[in-house]
Design a protein that fits this description.
With about 280 residues, this protein is an alpha/beta fold. About 50% of the residues lie in helices and about 10% in strands. A hairpin with an 8-residue loop joins strand 4 (about 220-225) and strand 5. Helix 1 (about 10-25) packs antiparallel against helix 5 and helix 4 (about 55-65) packs antiparallel against helix 5. About 30% of the residues are buried.
Length: about 280
């Protein structure tokens, strides 16, 4: 069985609002579902971000039960329900983007990442994206073309007016791998330099090989931070197939400490640009 995709931000927000309404009335899930005559698990699914978005009648029934009477509040919740059901651009690429990560990344206010093996997707050129997808040995050429198209669309995130802050540390080993492929090296490394120099919201650092062992020896790590208190911050651990998502505050804090340690040991942005420039000219 394929792992269940993580809930979108819209679904997470609606789930949080449903829990908050119930708790404000001092009701348990069991009490609420019995009052509505619902089957066991239905409300749990709605509150537990399991992709179960209530229909209009169910949401109205919940608001009535919880005595939500203000018209503006009811309209806001109905609007939030619509947002939870919206199909954003990346759903057109479900055949090649089967993880759900991009939907969360798109709404983050800050993205912090460490990449030990490859250049992160947000910073890849089209040729590098195709080569890295091809190297997985699991994709057809048609799928690779769609992966590249999706990745290029995804990168618009960094140039929109309200672009998130992106702090990225790339292991020098990943850059050496790029430099060893002449057909890719110049364009990809130049692209990284340009982003580091021009993008106001991007901080790009390189972790030198001579640092040795470090806090992110476990591998690729991303932390997504969200502005709203109702949107829990997320740790995303990339795997060959479906990634792993961690949301407990203690887990997020643990991985944030590891990422901060790696960033502290990495070269400054200026020194990282110098290293990249030297790789281009070597």
């Amino acid at each position: 069985m394929a792992p269940r995709k993580p809930a979108t931000i819209g679904q997470r927000r609606l789930s949080a609002e449903l829990r908050r309404m119930r708790e404000a009335r001092g009701m348990t899930v069991e009490e609420a579902r019995l009052a509505l005559g619902w089957s066991s698990g239905r409300l749990n699914h709605m509150e537990g971000t399991r992709m179960s978005v209530p229909d209009v009648s169910a949401l109205n029934a919940l608001m009535d039960l919880y005595e939500v009477k203000e018209t503006s509040r009811r309209e806001a919740l109905l609007s939030l329900r619509l947002q939870a059901r919206e199909k954003p651009w990346w759903q057109a690429y479900d055949d090649v983007l089967d993880d759900g990560y991009i939907g969360l990344e798109a709404l983050a206010s800050r993205i912090s990442a460490f990449h030990p093996i490859v250049v992160p997707g947000l910073l890849q050129t089209a040729d590098y994206a195709a080569a890295s997808a091809r190297a997985s040995l699991t994709r057809t050429e048609d799928e690779i073309s769609r992966i590249v198209d999706a990745r290029m669309e995804r990168q618009k995130l960094l140039t929109k007016p309200n672009a998130p802050e992106f702090r990225c540390v790339i292991d020098q080993a990943a850059l050496i791998r790029v430099a060893s492929v002449p057909d890719l090296a110049h364009e990809q490394l130049t692209h990284l330099v340009q982003i580091a120099e021009d993008a106001n919201t991007v901080t790009l650092q390189v972790l030198p090989l001579d640092v040795g062992l470090h806090g992110c020896m476990h591998g690729s790590t991303v932390i997504l931070d969200f502005e709203r208190d109702l949107d829990p911050n997320i740790v995303y651990l990339e795997t060959r197939g479906h990634g792993v998502y961690l949301e407990q505050p203690s887990q997020v804090a643990e991985y944030r400490t590891a990422l901060d340690s790696v960033a502290a040991n990495a070269l400054s942005q200026a020194d990282s640009i110098e290293l990249l420039t030297n790789l281009i000219t070597d």
